[in-house]
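Translate structure to sequence.
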């Protein structure tokens, strides 16, 4: 199933919740006043980790996070958790990947020179010491 997105009304509720009394928007992760800095409305728990995706998203399911201060680090951490969850699910279902096999080929053809080559003759045994050299 695809990722669920927040509706405009839910996004408006989250932005209002993050707005200070002075009218400035603050990051809900670290409290940094964003001003005109970019922000994202992110799922509190990564949507890929949700089991029931039929329920509608509410303002409690999301947070307003500053793009540089909180959103990028959280997303990087979520990606690792999602990948691990997918690996665990595949392992639980018994899905295995094929083991890596070496490339199989016919090999290189023998050259004419190698085909004509005579086998080397072995040298006769040579003793280390001769009796006549005393």
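Result:
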């Amino acid at each position: 199933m695809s990722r669920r997105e927040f509706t405009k009304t839910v996004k408006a509720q989250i932005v209002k919740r993050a707005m200070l009394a002075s009218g400035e928007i603050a990051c809900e992760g670290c409290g940094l006043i964003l001003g005109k800095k970019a922000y994202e409305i992110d799922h509190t728990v990564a949507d890929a980790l949700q089991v029931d995706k039929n329920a509608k998203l509410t303002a409690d399911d999301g947070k307003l996070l500053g793009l540089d201060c909180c959103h990028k680090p959280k997303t990087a951490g979520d990606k690792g958790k999602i990948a691990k969850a997918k690996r665990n699910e595949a392992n639980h279902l018994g899905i295995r990947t094929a083991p890596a096999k070496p490339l199989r080929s016919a090999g290189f053809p023998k050259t004419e020179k190698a085909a004509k080559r005579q086998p080397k003759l072995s040298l006769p045994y040579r003793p280390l010491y001769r009796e006549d050299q005393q």
